[in-house]
Amino acid sequence: MSAPDFRESPRAVARWVPGVVLLSGLLGAPVALPLSNGRDLAAGRPFRTSSTYPGCNVPYGLCANERLDVFFHTNEDESPWVEIDLGSVQTFSSVSVTNRLPDYKERAVPLAIETSIDGLAFAEVARQNETFSVWDAKFKPVKARYVRARALRRTWLHLGRIVVR
Question: Is 65 left (phi over 0), alpha (psi -120 to 50) or beta?
Answer without folding.
Answer: left
